[in-house]
Amino acid sequence: MVTVKKVKTKSELKSFIRFNYELYKDNPYSVPDLYEDMLNTFTEKNAAMEFCEAAFFLAYNEGGDIVGRVAGIINRRANEKWNSNTVRFGWIDFIDDYDVSSALLDAVVKWGREYGMDNIEGPLGFTDFDAEGLLIEGFDQMSTMATIYNFPYYVSHIERYGLEKAVDWIEILMNVPDEIPERLCRIARLVMDKYNLKIVKYSSAKKIKKDYGQAMFQCINSAYGYLFGYSELTPKQIDQYVDMYLPILDLDLLSIITEENGRLIGVGISMPSLSRALQSAKGKLLPFGWWHLLKALKFSHSDTLDLLLVAVLPEYQSKGVNALFFYDLLPLIKKKGFKYVESNPELESNEKVQQQWVYFDRKIHKRRRCYKKKI
């Protein structure tokens, strides 16, 4: 018999977070989130709580052991934008027992109906900056800090529940070329000359925040606004992400593209893969988790670079601006010793973004899916 209970105490929330670590502690491909980050995500410290409702559920077996978890989320901004009444499910984990997985999804459906929702989608987070999509291909590939890893049996459980494909995301692994392609250099120079664009570099995170902190993420809002389920980041969320990520970035690997007058029209953010470091940290900053992360960022980085995001204002899309990011980054990538570049999940239908990888020897090595169902 399975019992599902709503999380009500800090102790239960801690158990909610830790269940994932326990379930995947022996898995070589899963990358644990930092406990501190998850605690901030699931409490009022998360700026998305201003426009989201959330409930967290734990499943227990007859012996009182935790055997599953799931979050229910209602993003009011996204529902208003997309004219839907959707409850999201996210951070779903469970043992290989359909009674457990179905009970968890039942709990989210029941909770969503109480708020008038008539559709369920997931796995999704509060916003697109949370991990999303159930892994359906690439179970033997290392996960990243920005994505979900799940066991293969999750797929059959989700589909048995009657959930169907909404969209797929793909992830691409690329080999770093030995030389910068001449065609790339030629296009980049032509684009800069034609539109009077320049690549701006910084050595101070504080200065970037002052000059372009809000502008970078407003650019992301504009560039991603038409993508599946996207809800624009609020100024408070932007401040939160700027304070979270800017201090840890290698600023050499941050590309800002501006017009001649300084107006930002594109941004590219990348960083060394933290997957191995996060595995070594086991979800904890203390006592020694911080050292694994610091070493991976500053002293002995992975041979893989994670391209976290590339965003270009809509009026500059399909004009070759993306070539400028690689014109800027490829010499640095080679100099710093990276051998591989991995994309973040991108919608399989997003041909614009996939065109930017034409300069690389590449392959699709992971695929993940968002599911949906009328309730």
Quick rundown:
The protein has 375 residues and is an alpha+beta fold. It contains twelve helices and 14 strands. Strands 1, 2, 3, 4, 5, 6, 7, 8, 9, 10, 11, 12, 13 and 14 form a 14-stranded mixed beta sheet that branches.
Strand content: 25-35%
Quick check: average pLDDT? 92
Tell me the Rg in angstroms: 21 Å
Could you state the oligomeric state of the chains shown?
single chain
What summary fits the major beta sheet?
A: 14 strands, mixed
Number of helices: 12
Q: Termini, distance in Å?
A: 24 Å
The coarse overall form would be globular
Content-based structural category: alpha+beta
Order of helices and strands: EHHEEHEHEEHEHEHHEEHHEHEEHE
| Helix-residue proportion | 25-40%
Query: How many runs of DSSP E, i.e. beta strands?
Result: 14
Residue runs with pLDDT of under 50 for 5 or more positions? none
Describe what you observe in this structure:
The chain is about 35% helix and about 25% strand. It has twelve helices and 14 strands. The protein has helices spanning about 10-25, 35-40, 75-80, 100-115, 155-160, 180-195, 205-225, 235-245, 275-280, 290-300, 320-335, 350-355; strands at about 5, 50-60, 65-75, 85-95, 120, 135, 165-175, 195-200, 255-260, 265-270, 305-310, 340-345, 345, 360-375. A hairpin with a 4-residue loop joins strand 9 (about 255-260) and strand 10 (about 265-270). Helix 6 (about 180-195) packs across helix 11 and helix 7 (about 205-225) packs across helix 8. The chain starts with a strand and ends with a strand. The relative contact order is 0.16. The mean pLDDT is about 90.
